[in-house]
């Protein structure tokens, strides 16, 4: 979010209608009053930058995140193959804290990459049903980076539930 906002600021400073009217009328006293009241300029949405951010976020960002998710889930599932004898929860917990719980030498990276390729389009298309709306709300209506992070995190909870269901298949 920070890099996108620094590269393509959503808002730029623009004179207020009152400031334009006062300047057009050469009313220095009114301009001075507006300056004291911080009413000379206001933030204005930069539509071009907002469109660029939406496009970058929904293409490059979405593709990279989808690939990263698929590769991570595929590799961790292969590295954490659950032994048959660990059907009981306490035995599973003991196994997970042991050094043998995650073994990346067991991972068949060719199959992980093949699965990531197979999963890419379904996940990418599913993401297009949620994330463009979240990005639009964030870039158009939410002005602070902190607010955008909050909206993104809340949407991320919903997305995380969906992705957990996908990963469980």
TrEMBL record:
Belongs to the peroxisomal membrane protein PXMP2/4 family. Pfam families: Mpv17_PMP22 (PF04117). The keyword Endoplasmic reticulum does not apply. Keywords: Membrane, Transmembrane, Transmembrane helix. The lineage of its organism: Eukaryota, Fungi, Dikarya, Ascomycota, Pezizomycotina. The keyword Transmembrane helix applies. It is found in: Membrane. PANTHER family: PEROXISOMAL MEMBRANE PROTEIN 2, PEROXISOMAL MEMBRANE PROTEIN 2, PXMP2 MPV17. One of its GO terms (cellular component) is peroxisomal membrane. It is a multi-pass membrane protein. InterPro entries: Mpv17_PMP22 (IPR007248). This is Integral membrane mpv17 pmp22. The chain crosses the membrane at residues 120-142, 149-168.
């Amino acid at each position: 979010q920070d890099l996108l906002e620094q590269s393509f600021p959503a808002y730029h400073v623009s004179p207020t209608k009152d400031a334009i009217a006062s300047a057009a009328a050469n009313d220095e006293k009114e301009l001075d009053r507006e300056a004291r009241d911080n009413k000379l300029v206001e933030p204005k949405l930069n539509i071009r930058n907002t469109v660029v951010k939406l496009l970058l976020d929904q293409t490059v960002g979405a593709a990279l995140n989808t690939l990263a998710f698929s590769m991570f889930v595929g590799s961790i599932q292969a590295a954490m193959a659950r032994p048959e004898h660990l059907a009981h929860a306490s035995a599973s917990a003991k196994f997970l804290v042991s050094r043998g719980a995650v073994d990346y030498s067991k991972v068949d990276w060719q199959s992980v990459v093949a699965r990531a390729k197979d999963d890419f389009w379904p996940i990418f298309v599913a993401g297009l049903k949620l994330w463009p709306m979240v990005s639009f709300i964030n870039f158009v209506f939410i002005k602070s980076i902190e607010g955008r992070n909050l909206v993104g995190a809340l949407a991320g909870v919903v997305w995380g539930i969906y992705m957990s269901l996908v990963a469980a298949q």
